[in-house]
Design a protein that fits this description.
Layout: E1 4-7, H1 15-28, E2 32-35, H2 48-61, E3 64-66, E4 75-78, E5 85-90, H3 97-108, E6 115-121, H4 131-143, E7 148-155, E8 164-171, E9 180-181, E10 187-197, H5 201-215, E11 222-229, E12 235-244, E13 249-255, H6 262-278, H7 285-298, E14 301-305, H8 310-322, E15 325-332, E16 335-342
Parallel strand pairs: 1-2, 5-6, 9-14, 10-11
Antiparallel strand pairs: 2-4, 3-4, 6-8, 7-8, 10-12, 12-13, 14-16, 15-16
Helix pairs in contact: 1-2, 1-3, 1-8, 2-3, 5-6, 7-8
């Protein structure tokens, strides 16, 4: 059987490489074998979070799969047909729901019918996009590419308890719209959500105030809202985004942690956002990582990113393996312009 072989240890060598390879396998209807999965990590191979993403892709694409077990470092995946409809996936830990969404959203875009997916796990956990960043930055930016999706937050879940719940809704599309966006336009306003769960109300208020104090020297139009909830916490965090006149959003976030003051959380998010805005580029670094897959599917695009991360470089390598494309990268003091062209 013909299949594309992927070295899962390449570049960043983590879960994003695996998730994206499986998504592209479904979209291109091409079997893949991914080996050396997370081989550089202290706990190599598949963990619960990766298992959930893979099981979701298997169910959605009716795939044949081998190696789907905790600790497995090799997976063979052969998709059949992408099916929409209603699904529910429970990570059963505080593993990130946004990383599961990251894996299945591009697949569901090409289903024959709409989809509604319930995912249970961590909504605001380290080393992954927070649910607010995903909802208010990622989803909104993807709308510019013609993607019709939404994320509803039902219940927050923090590390280590998890238990958060979100609903992803996706309507099918026939193609992704190629766009060109290099430099950011003028800032219209800054928005954000400062939240806390099973913690005193003043935590969310202090996070928001600290973020505003950082940003207000450069942007005057700031509107943040505080959200206080009960759940399986405790936990807290803040997500910020800038509305830009070209329609894209630039975002940043930060999470609370034991021994970390609310002021530290707010300042961290505020400084991250200012750093993104000061780059002058249209796309923030984390959005850039995720846009590469969609750019590759569209087949013609250019974008300016505030920083070219190792995740991004890994995605560039991976998408060139799946598509007849070539990336041209212009680097400028840490910033980068990515241009995509088809190989003739």
């Amino acid at each position: 059987m013909e299949f594309l072989e992927i070295d899962g240890s390449y570049g960043e060598g983590g879960g994003q490489l695996l998730r994206t390879a499986i998504a592209l396998s479904c979209i291109t209807n091409r079997a893949v074998k991914v080996h050396n999965i997370r081989s550089k990590r202290p706990n190599p191979g598949l963990q619960h979070q990766h298992m959930t993403a893979l099981k979701a892709a298997v169910e959605i694409s009716k795939a044949n799969v081998k190696g789907l077990s905790i600790g497995s470092t090799t997976v063979f995946f052969k998709p059949e047909e992408i099916s929409g409809g209603k699904y529910e996936f429970d990570i059963k830990t505080a593993g990130s729901v946004t990383l599961v969404i990251q894996a299945i959203l591009p697949i569901l875009c090409f289903a024959k019918e709409p989809s509604e997916v319930t995912i249970i796990g961590g909504t605001d956990v380290p080393w992954s996009p927070t649910i607010d960043y995903f909802k208010y930055v990622v989803i909104e930016n993807l709308r510019r590419l013609g993607i019709d999706a939404s994320v509803d937050l039902i219940r927050r879940g923090h590390y280590p308890k998890g238990g958060g719940k979100v609903i992803l809704k996706v309507k099918p599309i026939s193609k992704i719209i190629p766009l060109s966006t290099v430099y950011r336009g003028n800032i219209i306003a800054i928005h954000g959500v400062s939240h806390c769960t099973n913690l005193p109300n003043h935590i969310a208020i202090r996070q928001a105030k600290a973020a505003i104090d950082v940003i207000k020297s450069e942007v005057k139009n700031i509107e943040l809202k505080e959200e206080v909830s009960q759940g399986l916490g405790p936990g807290s965090g803040i997500a910020l985004w800038a509305e830009i006149e070209n329609g894209f959003r630039i975002g940043a976030d930060a999470l609370g942690a034991k021994g970390k003051s609310a002021e530290e959380v707010g300042r961290e998010a505020g400084m991250k956002l200012l750093e993104e805005l000061r780059s002058g580029m249209a796309i923030d670094r984390h959005m850039g990582d995720m846009m590469i897959l969609y750019m590759a599917i569209a087949g013609g695009f250019q974008m300016g990113v505030s920083s070219l991360t190792l995740h991004a470089e890994t995605m560039i390598w991976l998408t060139e393996k799946f598509f007849n494309i070539k990336w041209n990268i212009e680097k400028m003091n840490g910033k980068a312009i990515l241009r995509l062209s088809k190989i003739t």
